[in-house]
Amino acid sequence: MLKKSLLYSAILSLLASSFIWLKTIDTYAFTGQVIHRGAVGEDVIELQSRLKNIGFYHGKIDGVFGWSTYWALRNFQSQFGLPVDGLAGKTTKAKLVKATKYNGASAAKSNNSSVASKSVKNTAVNTPQGITQNDIRLMANAVYGEARGEPFEGQVAVAAVILNRLSSPAFPKTIPGIIFQPGAFTAVADGQIWLTPNETARKAVIDALNGWDPTDNALYYFNPATATSSWIWGRPQIKRIGKHIFCR
Amino acid sequence: MIRGIVIGILVLAVAGTGYWGYQEHQEKNAVLLNAENNYQRAFHDLTYQVNLLHDKIGSTLAMNSGHSLSPSLADVWRITSEAHSSVGQLPLTLLPFNKTQEFLTNVGNFSYRTAIRDLDKEPLTKQETDTLQSLYKQSGEIKSELRKVQSMALKHNLRWMDVQLALASGKENTDNTIIDGFKKVEKTVSGYEEANMGPTMLNQQAKDENFKNLSGKTISQQEAMKEARVFSNINGGAHIKVTESGKGARYGFYSVSIKNPKSDQVVNMDITKKGGHLIWLMDNRTVAKQKISLHDAAGKALSYLNNNGYKNMEEYESSQYDNIGTFNFVTTIGGVRIYPESIKVKVALDNGEIVGVSAEEYLQSFQTRKIDKPIISMEQARKKVNPNLKVMEDRQAVIMNNLNHEVLCYEFLGTLGNDTYRIFINAKNGMEEKVEKLQNPESLNEGPM
Fold this sequence. Notes:
The complex is a heterodimer.
Chain A: H1 2-25, H2 42-53, H3 67-79, H4 90-99, H5 105-111, E1 124-125, H6 133-147, H7 152-166, H8 175-179, H9 186-189, H10 199-209, E2 220-222, H11 230-233, E3 237-241, E4 244-247
Antiparallel strand pairs in A: 2-4, 3-4
Chain B: H1 2-62, H2 66-88, H3 98-116, H4 126-156, H5 160-168, H6 177-190, H7 204-209, H8 221-232, E1 240-244, E2 253-259, E3 266-272, E4 278-283, H9 294-307, E5 313-321, E6 324-333, E7 336-348, E8 354-358, H10 360-365, H11 378-384, E9 390-400, E10 406-416, E11 419-426, E12 432-437, E13 442-443
Parallel strand pairs in B: 7-9
Antiparallel strand pairs in B: 1-2, 2-3, 3-4, 4-8, 5-6, 6-7, 7-8, 9-10, 10-11, 11-12
Helix pairs in contact in B: 1-2, 1-4, 2-3, 3-6, 4-6
């Protein structure tokens, strides 16, 4: 009886100590989340660093779970006999932690010396297919200049009109071509396009690029209080958002 | 004495102001002249290009062998594209000049499709030759109209700045040779709509008609409000507003805005009148610090779709923008992805709420479909893929091809160097329908922010 309880306590303490041991060595282990393609953040930085550590990942440690990271992870899963799903779940992360070394921020920093701050930061972002951050900025400029006083929906709508023109045969074939078409946007004509856009305008542009169109494919819009052209009043109207009437 | 000094100072001041004014005037003129010259260049370019276009189409008509036809048609395509760009630089936005631009686009599409075809194996059909004939005639008419405007402009030193001013002030009805000339061109082109361009036309109309597949009966405003509560998950005495779509809408819809009493934010959405389907939803509340993972958010998005009657959806694209997860879902039927039926969902990563839905594409292309059996095998299709590409994933999928037809394809995801590509091989004839280079994350220091 006494022996048995002694044994139990011994096992217990062993377990406890091993648990503590695990804890101390894995200061930089993953959080509990399943890491999904498209995710950003410190877990992704750790994932990329660990995959790079054992030679599966060859790209930059940028903290964005893009396609290169995805394939690296799948290769890792297939080589280590795990189900190949491209998700960093519990078992995959445990296997990774066992197979690789990672000492957190310092390791990531040595890979990317431009990150000067102490905490690990993302050095890249997701952008919609075929679009750069500069394109987003230019569109955000146009949206901010045209519709900064409008509700969010109205700002997405202005961005959506630019994109609808892009797929219409009657308009220029590039985003800058549409924005700078003479007479197309008043904000371009009076220079308000060069105001610094805010975060809302940028978010509106990203939403429009990702496929949100509150205007039912409108090609024109105007402010009925200030519109001078009789022609624009003749276009078939679709709906009104904020101060703007959107039409075909 | 004092009077003399005061007079002297005033004279100096007047002279100084005059000089300053003169300088300002000079500068303004220089800037105006610069802008005017840009317009002039675009205008004369345009007339030159349309002239060239007419000649080129003419010479393709006289050609016989595919050997010389293909380069000539490619040239037509290039010229239309340049002319299109010239039009875009003229201050014509407030002038109805769409038909002429559409004409240029259609000529470009037509010549591109025929130019890339192997014309020795598959020569121009009778119909295509007829199309070329009529394009020759039509471009000739546009050419002569533009020529008239050009000679008038040169003879009378007409300025584009005046055109711009006339258009901006809304007095386009006043006599203006350039505006009248362009209006006449537009009127001429409007009569061309019957010209048969074959399946190469960018067929917007066909796309719109697909909305007829919407199921269900027409709903009332009251019912739309009820639907809006379901879609937005907002119950109780929330403030709610409904407006009907205008005459220009492609299909009738209600715009509903509903105030979320919890966040005090307005959730906006459009719901089709027929069947009460959600077209899009937007909730622009501030999203707090990330608490749930992108993976859990994907699950929330999927169950939202399932709860709202969208069955068999599969997530194929996921991205995190700040604290919001954006997902792209498509229908799968028996393991075949139907890419035209796609729905986008935005999930707030602070509490997993749905903050955005866009189902327009889904509603446009939704139909009850029967998937054909592929004719060639996966292995045969794989042989058609560039051998340098390392194929990582494969499946069957239905996509919209360049001619706006739905085709059954084998989809291959693979890598070439550091880039990932999505390649579609037609499952019937092995044609490479589409090759897409997928987006890599963009480094922050390359952007402006």
